[in-house]
Amino acid sequence: MDSHDGFREFVLARQQALMRTAYLLTGDAHLAEDLLQSVLIKVVGQWPKLSRGGNPEAYTRKALVNQYISWRRRPRPELPSADPPEHGASYDGAALDRILLRQALAKLTPKQRAVIVLRFWADLTETQTAEALGCSVGTVKSQAHHALARLRMLAPELAYLLSDSEIEEAAR
Amino acid sequence: MTRLREALDDIAGEAPMVSLPDLADLAVAGHRRRRRVTTALAVVATVVALGAGSATVALTGLGGDHTAAPQRVDTVPDLPEGRVGPLSHAYQTGCKVDERRRPDCSATEWRVVTRTGTTYRVPQALIRNVKERRVPVSISRDGRMLAYYSRQAQAHVVRDLTSGSVVTSPVTVKEERIGTGSMLVVSDDGRYVVFDPREGTKEPGLLIDMRTGKTVSIPGEFEAVSVRGGVAELVRYIKTDLWLMPVTGGGTPVRFDGVFIMFSELAPDGRTVAAFEIQGDDERVLTLLDARTGRTLRRVITRGLPKDGGVLNTALWLSGSEVTLVSQDKGAVRAYAVNVTTGQARQVARYSNKLPGLTLPGAVSSGY
């Protein structure tokens, strides 16, 4: 038993969920691993404080987002892990949508992408998203609006994904 | 659940399974190593400043197939003093995993490979700093100069691989300043080094004259592409602006109409640069821009690039009509020469895509 056992338990329980967040943010398996590793080094340094009534999950998520935005300040191409559809190949609709959505997400700004992931995948409230991003609720609203508008523009085929009432409200 | 969430969830489902032997132990080890190094540095602060010098070298190009298996670890010698010959590339070694499946990254190091295929360890080049940030090295366009950061000197060092001379920067830069995505560029003659402590932030960069120790501060939002012929090529990505700044400072940025990334160095005509327009849907369309006026000169549809790959960067001009472009696909990292009139690409070099931190001559090196 050492002082890091609590941290180890936390990582063991949440590592795959955190990896999924990192992957949605970066869109790249290697970058996601790098991102998660570098963030966990920070988390272990804060563990004594976090284990005394902090919220390790929220702290880690916030660190992931901040680190990702910092890394992505310079745009760089994203290599899709799925091959783009070739002419004549047969794909089911969901697979095609996934490819289109990945390509469209890669063209968002880091903050816009983070808002999409936190608000519409992690189901955080606007306040929680603002907390994670270290910005105001107003900024979250405007970033969500711009991100959704850009997704519509980049992938008009995916308009149906963005037509649920909750999404349309955020897009206003 | 919204349909957007379902679609995002499908993508998240493609996330890699956590395959690291023990993610938590890796983090704990990294944290402990950082603390250890910080403590050690507080006790021993050694700064070595040597005299400066420079060398004039001739230009050559990229070339060859460098995908062969690297030498066995136990047979790789240290980079010897004296003449070694120009480099083909540099890379980092990976972490080891012990019998208890605990990762050990303490032995990772920079290695360089010469054009003739010999691999050397470069233990004097810092690979990670006290904050666990990756520290880049840089190779000049012709492969003759290697720039790296020395922990012992707490400064940058330029090693001339053809003459064997080693010049340590008279300007000390504290190791802690090297942040995420720090960048390094070295000029062909090894006289100038541009260090950006943290790419894409407002933290200013530094152009260092290795001979005199004079420095020119570079506004943080600008990133260096190259230093050549007494001019540093700097880009601000958001707008997009290009600034051909004399190494003594001065000059005025030029704004392009559009958002461009992946800038090449200046073409031999001294005014053309190649870049990709970020708003374009097709990353295979290369745009030629006039660095003096900001005008778009031509859009070139590239042909002959692998369909399953992505372009990583543009780089050197091999002639007035061919610019190199670095691309990565599932099989390899490849350098292509692209004819800027016809768009036809021909492969000029190939590297294994399993080399962490792969650094090529003349390409900006980033500590990602």
UniProtKB/TrEMBL annotation, chain A:
Gene3D superfamilies per UniProt: 1.10.1740.10, Winged helix-like DNA-binding domain superfamily/Winged helix DNA-binding domain
Q: Which Pfam families match?
A: Sigma70_r2, Sigma70_r4_2
Q: Which residue ranges does the record assign to the RNA polymerase sigma factor 70 region 4 type domain?
A: 100-151
Q: Mind listing the GO molecular function terms for this protein?
A: DNA binding; sigma factor activity
Q: Does the keyword Transcription apply?
A: yes
Question: SUPFAM superfamilies of this UniProt entry?
Answer: Sigma2 domain of RNA polymerase sigma factors (SSF88946), Sigma3 and sigma4 domains of RNA polymerase sigma factors (SSF88659)
Question: Origin, by domain of life?
Answer: Bacteria
Q: Does the keyword DNA-binding apply?
A: yes
Task: Give the matching InterPro entries.
Answer: RNA_pol_sigma-70-like (IPR039425), RNA_pol_sigma-70_dom (IPR014284), RNA_pol_sigma-E_actinobac (IPR014325), RNA_pol_sigma70_r2 (IPR007627), RNA_pol_sigma70_r4_t2 (IPR013249), RNA_pol_sigma_r2 (IPR013325), RNA_pol_sigma_r3/r4-like (IPR013324), WH-like_DNA-bd_sf (IPR036388)
Q: Any idea where the RNA polymerase sigma-70 region domain is?
A: 13-74
Per UniProt, the keywords (alphabetical) are:
DNA-binding, Sigma factor, Transcription, Transcription regulation
Per the UniProt entry, what are the Gene Ontology biological process annotations, in alphabetical order?
Answer: DNA-templated transcription initiation
Q: In which family does this protein belong, per the annotation? A: Belongs to the sigma-70 factor family. ECF subfamily.
Q: Which NCBIfam families match?
A: SigE-fam_strep (TIGR02983), sigma70-ECF (TIGR02937)
- The protein here is known as RNA polymerase sigma24 factor
Source species of the chain: Streptosporangium carneum
TrEMBL record, chain B:
Q: Which SUPFAM superfamilies match?
A: DPP6 N-terminal domain-like (SSF82171)
Cross-referenced InterPro entries? 6-blade_b-propeller_TolB-like
Q: Which residue ranges run through the membrane?
A: 40-62
> Mind listing the UniProt keywords for this protein, alphabetically?
Membrane, Transmembrane, Transmembrane helix
Q: What protein name is recorded for this chain?
A: Lipoprotein LpqB beta-propeller domain-containing protein
Q: Write down the species.
A: Streptosporangium carneum
